[in-house]
Every structure is written in structure tokens, then in C-alpha cells.
Amino acid sequence: MKRILLIFLLLIPVISLPGRAAEYDYTLYDGFTIPADPVLPEKEKHPSLWFADEGIAALKQKRTADARTGRLWSALAQDPLLTLELPSPPSAGDDKTTVHKYYGIMSMLAQVNALVWLLSDDPSREIYKTRAIQALARAYDGPVYALDPKESGSPVDEIYLGTWAQNYCAAYDWLQAELTPEQDTAIRDRLARQATWISQNLGQWGPRPHNHLSKPAWGLGTLALTLTSHPEAKKWLAQALDASNRCTQHFFSGDGIYREGAHYLVFSAVNFVPFLYHYRNVAGVDGFAAFAPVFETVVATRNGKGWLPNIYDSYIKPFPSHWVAGPYMAHSTWLNPDAELGNVLQWAAQNTDFNAFGGKTSDP
Fold first, then answer.
1. Of 144, 151, 214, 241, which one has the fewest beta carbons inside 10 Å?
2. How far apart are CA 217 and CA 230, in angstroms?
């Protein structure tokens, strides 16, 4: 009898009662948020996401400012995407790798060609503008809207939508003044359709505060900041802020620790760093202040080679802290009372061994 009673008691915790599914309270973690009220400029302006017209000359000077920027420009000017033939759109029945690579390549091709056209002095640079416009004119062609991001292994998984959107938005931002009215309307319609699709499905794709919610949300935010005159832009931005705030409140601690480890921190930074720059540059809202503990923790927890520990769902990984050094050049930090946080982030990047990781994050 005692044995039967013990078995019954052990089974109690796993009994599932109808209608009583356990719900996790995602508000218990002490993360952070940025202001939730959406702010857009009175008038749409291009370029504005990364820099304005008056910043282009300074960027051109940086091409040969020192050895490092010289290497960066040389690599960009020789990028294979500048000569790659624009691929034909796949069909829904093609293998998933083919479909996934197509959307990634097309968005990067638009961005890289637009940037090299903007910064190059090469007399033949107009070809890059033509190629970028061609890619933008085909943004999101193919079967993307016929595929389900929620399907396991989907080639259009929502975690990639934010990156593709931010690539296309940057290219459009740099080229908008060069477009004919017909080209401009057609490209804006394509970007707006993507924003509408993300907006309508964001809650279903990412019901929990996780990178499946935050990454497309940051992409949606950039789409709103690109198409600020669109009647839905403020709604898109408000939705993006709400979704991303729910995520940063849950998967960051108040002192900047990312609960999933260094790999997914960088995976998220690929989208939240661009969004922070875009929101500051377009609308004057500085979200970097709220994220400061994140970058302080990156420095405080690195090992002697600059690598972050392999906690939780992660392996040892470096963090490209120079991505965000600029916004913190007037931000004091407990890490060094005699330096600004931006200086510390520069030091951290200069003293990080990226070579063991192929150098892929050393020169963003």
C-alpha cells in the first residue's frame, strides 16, 4: 500500500489538468526597455538611417584614413556581390537552402552595391547603382509570402526577416534620391508589403519574448524608420518597440547579462545595433543609454583573449564592441573612471583575438 501511495505522489507533478496549462511569467526578470512611445520625424528624409548627406564626405575620407579603414574599403570594393549575376527567383518547391540563400544574397547585393556606388570615386561606379536598383526592384520576389516562417526549418524563418529588411532599407535609403518616381513607388510598395506582413504575423511567429520575436521586430522598426511618411509607419514602430521591449526586459538582466549566452547575444546584436543607430539618426531617440550595461558586461566578463564565456546555449565567442563605441564617447562608466565607455569599447575590440573565429566580426 505504501509503495502504491508513493508512486501516486510522484506522479502528481506531471498530471495535466484540462484547461490549466501552466503559464510562465516573463516579467519576473529585471531587464530594461527603451521609451515605448513611437517617435517619427515630421518629414521623411534620405539618406538618414546610418548617416545624412553631410556625412558622406567624411566617410569617403575614412577610406584611406589609416591601414585598418584602408583594408575595410579594399575588401568592400572587391566584394563578390559587386559582380555576381543577379540570381533568378526560386520556386516554393525548391530545396530550403536554395530559397534561403536567395533572399539573403539579394538583400546583401542591394546593400553592398548601393554603398559602393555612394562612396566610390570610380568612373564606372554607375553600374553599382544600376545593380542595387535592380535588386531593390525585385525585393521579396519569389515564394516568400507563400511560405510559412513557423514551419520547422523554414527557409524564410522569421529570425532572418529582420536582417533582410535592414539590408534592403539601407540600400533604399542611400539610393532614394536617384530613383525615378515610378521606381520609388514600386520599391516602397515592396518594402511596405513586407512591413505589413511582419506586423500582421509578429505575435504568431514569436509568442514568447525570444529572438524569434525581437529580430523581426527590430527589422520592422527599421522599415518604419525608412518609410516614415507611410500612414502605417507609426503603428509599425509602436509594435516593434513593444515587442523588442518585452524581449530585452526578459532575456537581459538589469546589469546587462544576456541569459542565452554570447552566441545569441551577437545574433541579436546584428539587428538591435542597426535599429539603435537608425532610431537615433532618424528620430533623435537615443536607445543606446538603456543598452549601456550590456556593453559594460561584455567587457567585464571577457577573458584574456577578449572572448565571452560559454554559458547556457552558447560557445566561447568574441563580441565586436567597436560596433557601438561611437555612441558612448560621452558616456561615463564604472569600468574606468578616467575614460568614457566608448574608449573602453575601442580598447576591448583592439585587444580581442578575432583570428580564431576567422576574423569575421573584427571588421564589421
1. 151
2. 18
pLDDT for 360: 53
- Residue 34 has phi, psi (to 5 degrees) of -110, 165
Residue 249: how many other CB atoms lie within 10 Å: 18
| Per-residue model confidence as pLDDT tens digits over 54-76 | 999 999 999 989 998 999 999 99
Please give the Cα distance from 161 to 217 (Å, whole number): 9
What is the distance between the alpha carbons of residues 266 and 263, in angstroms, rounded to a whole number? Answer: 5
What pLDDT was estimated at residue 116?
A: 98
Is the bond preceding residue 181 a cis peptide, omega within 30 degrees? no
Partnered with residue 307 across adjacent β-strands are 318
State the Cα–Cα distance between residues 318 and 353, nearest whole angstrom.
8
> How many other CB atoms are there within 10 angstroms of residue 333's CB atom?
20
Residues 300-324, mean pLDDT to the nearest whole number: 93
Report the distance separating Cα 111 and Cα 82, nearest Å: 10
Place of cell 545624412: 52
Cross-strand pairs, 340 = 332
pLDDT in tens, 116-140: 999 999 999 999 999 999 999 999 9
Rounded to the nearest angstrom, the gap between the alpha carbon of residue 305 and the centroid of all alpha carbons in its chain is 26
Query: Which ranges of the chain would DSSP assign to H, the alpha helix?
Result: 2-11, 56-62, 67-77, 96-119, 126-137, 158-175, 181-205, 211-226, 233-251, 262-283, 288-300, 341-350
Query: How many alpha carbons lie under 13 Å from residue 250 in its C-beta half-sphere?
Result: 16
Nine cell digits for residue 244 = 523588442
Report whether pLDDT(169) > 90: yes
